[in-house]
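Honest question from a wet-lab person: if I give you the sequences of every part of a complex, can you actually get the arrangement of the whole thing, not just the pieces? Trying it with mine:
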Amino acid sequence: MSLSAEIIAVGTEILLGEITNTDAVTVAQALSELGINAYYQTVVGDNPERLRECILAAKKRADIIITTGGLGPTFDDLTKQVAAEAFGKKLVLSEEALKKIEGYFEQLGRKMTDNNARQAYLPEGCTLLENDWGTAPGCAIEDGGKILIMLPGPPRECIPMVKYRMMPYLQKLSDSQLVSHGIHIYGMGESEVESKISSFAETMENPTLAPYAKDGEVLLRVTGKAQTEKEADAITRPVIAKVEEILGDVVYGVDVPSLHAAAFEVLREKKLTLSTAESCTGGLCAKLITDIPGSSEVFFGGICAYQNEIKTRLLGIAPSLIEEHGVVSREVAEALARAACEKFGTDAGIGVTGYADPSSGDEKNPGGTVYVAVTLCGKTVSSKIYQPRGRELAKSRAAQEAFNLLRREARKL
Amino acid sequence: MSLSAEIIAVGTEILLGEITNTDAVTVAQALSELGINAYYQTVVGDNPERLRECILAAKKRADIIITTGGLGPTFDDLTKQVAAEAFGKKLVLSEEALKKIEGYFEQLGRKMTDNNARQAYLPEGCTLLENDWGTAPGCAIEDGGKILIMLPGPPRECIPMVKYRMMPYLQKLSDSQLVSHGIHIYGMGESEVESKISSFAETMENPTLAPYAKDGEVLLRVTGKAQTEKEADAITRPVIAKVEEILGDVVYGVDVPSLHAAAFEVLREKKLTLSTAESCTGGLCAKLITDIPGSSEVFFGGICAYQNEIKTRLLGIAPSLIEEHGVVSREVAEALARAACEKFGTDAGIGVTGYADPSSGDEKNPGGTVYVAVTLCGKTVSSKIYQPRGRELAKSRAAQEAFNLLRREARKL
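Yes, you can. This is the full assembly:
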């Protein structure tokens, strides 16, 4: 299958810069996973002539058109009308869609207004793509070998619609099934990852192996293609194992949402508890760990000790230690990690101290230098990072380093 | 001036869904401020034929084309070549641009490679748009009344290039100058803001007043147009004053980056110090305040007390208080705020307790309920929020509420 696709986002609010077109990212990633080539993305306002022009241009160039937005109940929602016309179809009432919308309002205990019923008019002969996350149904129409799929605009609806409606619909077109897994890597740059796996990856055609660099991490996407999902999944497994073997411990997880979530999982599995003592990251480590549902199983709490006096008074860091090594030092980071464990009575503690701001720093430690330490069951390890490209970036990089140390040490237990 | 513009983003990584096209938002907002209508946005890969097609289509439809991306030193950076050709120009070496690039490398103490010199080749007769934030210069070319402006893709370069190069360039085309200010509002919904200012705003033509809703806040953008910047600014001032008079204390600032930055500024001005005692927000308030450069002037530190036992042991919250009112209660939030002040010895303290996760909660307080309190110079105020649409959203909404209480109370002193 070597199909091509285009994405058209419909919405004046995108043209005005009021919202970011994140739906395009959602759809593009899905197309990419499916092995469908996308050559254009377009954004057009709630204007029927310009939308028609866009759809007709896309229909000439691509096999598949995906639209996002313009399916709602108000009069500026006109994607269905314009798309149906461009594909030579009429809009007809879908009883199935209507029932679903009525049910939605019943469940909320609200009366359905007439304009909501408008959403149940769909192009004749279309495939209904049920929307379980909002009121506006999606649909797919075909004409002369060309396919148009319409998805709702709000990301909360678009994201699941892509995953549970669009992807299965497009997979049916193909005689093969795709399965994709993400291998998450921290602590090795993209070019090093590439060079290490190149001899092995270059000869591979199925599954494919593609690297993406993002936020100080590398993601390797392994995509297998086969007759069934099970077979497709099966051929990715030896590749994942091989990559893990080659790269070793820099692989922090497969199909995991983040480094801190991976660290959290190891702690939860081993029934280990965690606390934090942060200076320059100012609560970021605590914030990240508490973003995870169920974090209270593992996380007891943290102290953000921004001033030296607080480090001493609340965490018992000796003023002489600060004086001898400087407050931004490996020694103080390690003392903070140990103090967290003691103060909170946890198995693990994270300690962070540094100069997050690029304009701060001293002779020994320029702005962007952060020391990170982890104490686990009495043993303390530490690390230094340097990220002078901005305050928030340095904080975020330091938190990643802390969670990576924590994950690595906890795995050894 | 009623010009029209189109935005073309060049980059295969956007088509693959690897990065979000945030440059389009930056450019679109700027065009919107300038009163230039944008009818289309396009994304195209690093492919000369398709890029040429996009530029030619845009040239037919619009007066102004803005491209982002594809100006770098590598061979897949081809925006300049293709755009120059589409506008009937040759690329010639710009000595000015070359000097600038050489200077950039000299400053870094690195040797400039030959491919970097490629970036100094610009379309003949173009206006150089100097890039002080990276190596690839931007430029503007004109042909038959049509204008094409090329900007670098990395947001760290694109954002300042839009503000300091593109906007002044486009303003020169106009015989009038625009000045825009943002009035930031928290604690009142968009529709209420609109209805309150409608009688006053509807008759207005210059300046214009446009509302935007975002992340629980409303932004009112006031844009004045006049012969000079000074005059344009002057006519916005009475409008800002009038809006502040009508809306009162829900206006938290004009041209300020965020609610927590506004709260921080009031504290800094009045030389007040701050600490935090957070439960469900898990360090988010501390994280936000420490994102602000210079935060150590105001912020002493915080305790994230995730477990009840920690609330008692580290912050002295009486177990009887927790038992009587429940840990998620106004009383415990207020006790936390007071405890922060005492523990850290600060003038102000933030206390937060709640059920951030939608799936958590009890009979009295469903998931998404958070109590927020602020103690300032001995006086404690508190507030309750309900945001059941997600863990991170509830945390973020609670932090906003805390900083708003803090700002409001500190202003009274």
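Two things worth pointing out. Chain B has a mean pLDDT of 92. Chain B touches chain A through 67 residues (CB under 8 Å).
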